[in-house]
Automatic annotation (TrEMBL):
Signal peptide (residue range): 1-20
Keyword tags: Signal
Protein name stated in the entry: Lipoprotein
């Protein structure tokens, strides 16, 4: 049966007959335009959204939350959104939630103290940084319910002593280290 249908189709194509009453000899070829408007999604784009450090014991809800957060951040940081009315309003709001306080030194050889307060409401982050006698930072991530505290003090020309503590609802981790800068 297949052989019969195949032979019939071949004979019809040589004879020029067409059931649709179209003359194939004078028909122009169909030109499908290339879509240059729709942005293409690359592997790099997918890697920016899908977290590559997923733990085997991590819940589906947690993974989905991270994917949604990363996707929203990528979308929001795109030039189209940043230059829109919404993007400018969010940037303006973020800037209003940043404050720096400087306490100048009382003497020329004294130490000036600087406090930086930052609230990134749309990322649910709060940050406090101090520089003066030492460098210190406290970061709180409300979505992950995690706190990160870090103290740095210069011990040599290009080396800092670092004391840090990271805590979330499941565990706490304290570290002491030596950081090089070159």
């Amino acid at each position: 049966m297949r052989l019969l249908v195949s032979c019939l189709l071949i004979m019809m194509s040589f004879s020029g007959a067409c059931w649709a009453k179209v003359d194939l000899r004078t028909t122009k070829p169909l030109v499908i335009p290339e879509d240059k408007v729709t942005p293409k999604i690359t592997k790099e784009d997918v890697a920016k959204i899908i977290p590559l450090d997923i733990q085997s014991n991590e819940s589906t809800g947690s993974v989905m939350s991270r994917i949604a957060d990363r996707g929203f951040n990528m979308w929001f940081n795109s030039p189209i959104i940043k230059n829109s009315l919404l993007g400018r309003a969010v940037e303006e709001t973020q800037e209003k939630l940043k404050t720096d306080v400087v306490v100048p030194a009382a003497t020329p050889r004294g130490v000036s103290h600087k406090f930086s307060f930052r609230v990134e409401a749309f990322q649910a982050l709060a940050k406090v940084e101090y520089s003066g006698w030492v460098k210190a930072a406290v970061n709180y991530d409300a979505k992950a319910s995690a706190t990160d505290i870090q103290f740095k003090d210069k011990v040599m020309n290009n080396k800092d002593l670092v004391v840090s503590h990271k805590a979330n609802k499941e565990q706490g981790l304290s570290m002491i280290g030596l950081a090089w800068s070159w």
